[in-house]
Amino acid sequence: MSRTRRSTPGAAPLKVLFVASEMAPLIKTGGLADVAGGLPKALVQQGLDVRVLLPGYADLAVRRQEFDLEAGFVPPADMADAQLRHLPADCAGVPVWLLESPGFSDRPGNPYLDPHGRDWADNAHRFNRLCRVAAQLAGGRAGLAWRPDIVHANDWQTGLTPVWMMLERVDRPVLFTIHNLQYRGDFESGLLPELKLPFWLHHPDALEFHGRIALIKGGLVFADAISTVSPTYAREIQTPDLGEGLDGLLRHRKAVLHGVLNGIDTAAWDPATDGHLPVHYTADRWAAKAEIKRALQAEVGLAPRDDVPVLGFIARLIPQKGIDLILDILPELMALPVQLVFLGSGMPDMEHRLRQACASAAGQAACRIGFDEGLAHRIEAGADLFLMPSRFEPCGLNQLYSLRYGTPPIVHHCGGLADSVVDTDASSLATGTANGFQFAPATSMALLDAVRRALKCYNDKDTWHKIVQAAMAQDFSWAHSAGRYQTIYAQLRAPLQHDPSR
Ligand code: ADP
User: Which segments of 432-500 are extended strands (E)?
Assistant: First the structure.
């Protein structure tokens, strides 16, 4: 398939409503925002007509009030206080509708968590409203001239979209994408009447999950097709190990379950132009990378040394990301000629452990607790190797950034990490495909082994050059993944195509 495929000339462009709970650069807590910021834009560049529906949170990176309300918008009958604000394409790359609604627009802070780090108590109600408006738009009942041909919903926050579309007999196909199955959107089943949903949905073949309801099941059961963000994760979630109790359902729907590796924003993440870097480099103008390394060492408080590699780590500090696997072997790592730099925030006990570990190895290990986009870029560029020991990883973005920045990643063999990183050995070096290092199982000892292997390669100039060149030559632009999504959309629209499992 051509990477720059466009929809058929002359034909009306396919209209897609993309529904998500976060979108870069407007609001971001994780990879979902990067996808919502990148994929719709790439689809528009390929000729599709895409609009995004996003909650109008109080803390968006734009001043919402400066944008017009959709004058003709008709909300669902009992949501009279809901309004849509229209952000033109020059704000976020595609036209965006912001849902102005209580619970979103009047509440500063994290989209999902209160200031104590607990889920907002009314999350089910808030995101139910998003799904109801999505169904209203999909049905052409929102008083607007634009009506989608396809709805593309993402993660549990949008799981009720196909449910409302079914209840309201909206005849538009839905693709539901899983970005992380661990977040199911579990709630008391007693909430169903409050959400204005019929109680028959409390059924194993609908939303019921161990006596409660899981809103992600709305997407998994009622969408016409399902996708997830890498081919390996699409297989892994059909197993009891990573299926989060939903593997049986996913096996049942495997005929319509796709795995599409995410792309990255190659304009924002480009070592040749990155505005967060003091100087720039490419595979051919490589020397400046050493300058960025020195600046990074100074910025985070590492000793100014050219002769040891810096190992970087950036992630939410949660068990999934395997930060404990690194900390468990910190003494062994500190005995090697390496430096470590960590950036992350998350569970307070992990933040505490990381701070303590770095304090005990001052000058050789350093951490920054918090979310810092600029430092994330400088770590990707200034480090020599990148650590990503995630226990599971649906796609993962940082290993893709690392590859593009010539900072070979050391990853646990799982999900999107397995699909994007090629382990270095004699045969992958011979074919020129080696671009990083993989280890399994997800243990500290296997990680330590991989670090030792990586150091050997790092110290062999020719080998290192080959690995870095292969990494930087790869194309992880959204254009490629967007082509895959176009194929799925086309299948969903083909009248004879149907899901045998439904
Ligand atoms: P997840 O969505 O599970 O958090 P991904 O690797 O898919 O993991 O995406 C995480 C995104 O968030 C990446 O763009 C990463 O660089 C960014 N990120 C995570 N933690 C931080 C942080 N503390 N500061 C800056 N960026 C971060």
Answer: 437-439
Of ligand 1's atoms, which has the minimum distance to the CA of residue 179?
2
Please calculate the CA angle 312-318-320 and round it to the nearest 5 degrees.
85
CATH superfamily, region 288-475: Glycogen Phosphorylase B; (3.40.50.2000)
* pLDDT tens digits along 164-219: 999 999 999 999 999 999 999 999 999 999 999 999 999 999 999 999 999 999 99
| Inter-residue contact 396 to 374 (CB < 8 Å) | no
How far apart (Å, rounded) are the C-alpha atoms in residues 411 and 142? 46
Show the 3-state SS of 201-219.
HCCCCCCEECCEEECHHHH
Contact 32, 21 (CB under 8 A): yes
| Cα 447 to ligand 1 centroid, rounded to whole Å | 21
The residue to mutate among 178, 274, 314, 355, having the most atoms of ligand 1 within 8 angstroms of its beta carbon, is 314
Instruction: Decide: 129 and 54 in contact? Cβ < 8 Å.
Output: no
Question: What secondary structure does DSSP assign to 188-257, as a single string?
Answer: -TTHHHHTT--GGGSSTTTTEETTEEETHHHHHHHSSEEEES-HHHHHHTTSTTTSTT-HHHHHHTGGGE
Task: Say whether 50 sits in a helix, a strand or coil.
Answer: strand
* CB 173 less than 6 A from any atom of ligand 1: no
Q: What is the pLDDT of residues 454-493, one digit of tens each?
A: 999 999 999 999 999 999 999 999 999 999 999 999 999 9
Say how many residues make up the chain.
502
Strand order in the sheet with 385-388: 365-369, 339-346, 310-317, 385-388, 409-412, 437-439
- The pTM (predicted TM-score) of the whole model is 0.93
- φ, ψ of residue 76 in degrees (nearest 5): -55, 155
Express each pLDDT in 227-248 by its tens digit.
999 999 999 999 999 999 999 9
Fold of 15-263+479-495: Rossmann fold (3.40.50)
Q: What is the mean pLDDT of residues 323-344?
A: 98
Strand partners, 151: 17, 174
The yes-or-no verdict on residue 445 having pLDDT over 80 is yes
Question: What residue ranges of the chain are covered by domains with CATH 3.40.50.2000?
Answer: 15-263+479-495, 288-475
Helix/strand/coil for 131: helix
Please answer whether residues 356 and 311 qualify as being in contact, where contact means their C-beta atoms are separated by less than 8 angstroms. no
376 lines ligand 1 (CB under 6 A): yes
